[in-house]
Design brief:
This protein is of the alpha/beta class. 42% of the residues lie in helices and 15% in strands. The longest helix has 14 residues, at 70-83.
């Protein structure tokens, strides 16, 4: 099976134009980009896809070894880039896929033109001199809860991740997305995500990078966004007029504007 079928790849926009690839985060699928990606179809080849285990991806293509690290997911991104013969790629990655994008761009920098990292975190667990937002016990408790009752965990955590409690429909959409994800793959992906540490990879990024940061983000707080900006050579940080962890859903206008300003330069 080719990458297009494995990942339900969808291509829109201007054929032969510079490609912009939108990569969704944990518990999501490519549909989460619907309010943002469409605004780039006038000038870019727009590519969206589902990680294995999400959306309409081929569940049988999940490989516990390959997908046992974020590098395996980065390899999936590179397989898509190669199969579609994409060059000068602008990669827009949300949450854990920000680091997946970093790993892909470090592995093959000649394929990438720019990175946009939406709510990135290179490590979710606190460390000396690093405010990761969670303690080791926090993450252990989170993973235990997820393992014991994935659907219950999803209904509890998704609204908190989304934030914007005054707009419950947003939290409900993220909850539904979490619940549609294959539970077993989601459990494994969560462990890979929340136990990752990609801080050492940031200095190797050699393409222009934009960090998009929200306020009141319980997954990737402002201090983490600032850390990513400072660790990637020449990176820029934009504070969005948005709260929570999913500005492409909660504040698509400011998110689109910030991405457009960066990639259309």
């Amino acid at each position: 099976m080719d990458a297009a079928a494995r990942h339900d790849i969808r291509v829109a926009g201007v054929s032969g134009a510079q490609p912009i690839v939108f990569v969704h985060g944990f518990g999501c699928d490519q549909n989460m980009w619907r309010y943002v990606a469409q605004h780039f179809e006038d000038a870019f080849t727009v590519v969206t896809f589902d990680h294995i285990g999400a959306g309409a991806s081929d569940l049988a293509s999940y490989d516990p070894v390959r997908h046992g690290s974020l590098s395996g997911y980065a390899d999936d991104v590179l397989a898509i880039v190669h199969e579609l013969d994409l060059h000068d790629v602008v990669l827009v990655g949300h949450s854990v896929s920000a680091m997946i994008g970093v790993l892909a761009a470090v592995a093959e920098p000649e394929r990438f033109d720019k990175l946009v990292l939406v709510g990135p975190s290179p490590r979710y667990i606190d460390d000396v001199g690093y405010p990761g937002a969670f303690t080791e016990s926090d993450i252990a408790e989170l993973l235990d809860s997820l393992d014991s009752n994935y659907l219950g965990w999803s209904r509890a955590i998704a609204p908190a991740i989304m934030g914007n409690a005054e707009r419950p429909a947003l939290g409900a959409e993220l909850t539904d997305s979490f619940c549609r994800t294959d539970p077993e793959i989601a459990r494994r992906f969560a462990r890979v995500t929340f136990m990752s540490d990609n801080r050492a990879d940031l200095a190797a990024v050699s393409v222009p990078t934009l960090v998009l940061q929200c306020s009141d983000d319980i997954i990737a707080p402002v201090a983490v966004g600032e850390y990513v900006r400072d660790a990637i050579p020449g990176a820029e940080l934009v504070m969005l007029d948005a709260t929570g962890h999913c500005p492409h859903l909660s504040a698509p206008g400011p998110t689109t504007a910030a991405i457009a300003d960066f990639v259309r330069r």
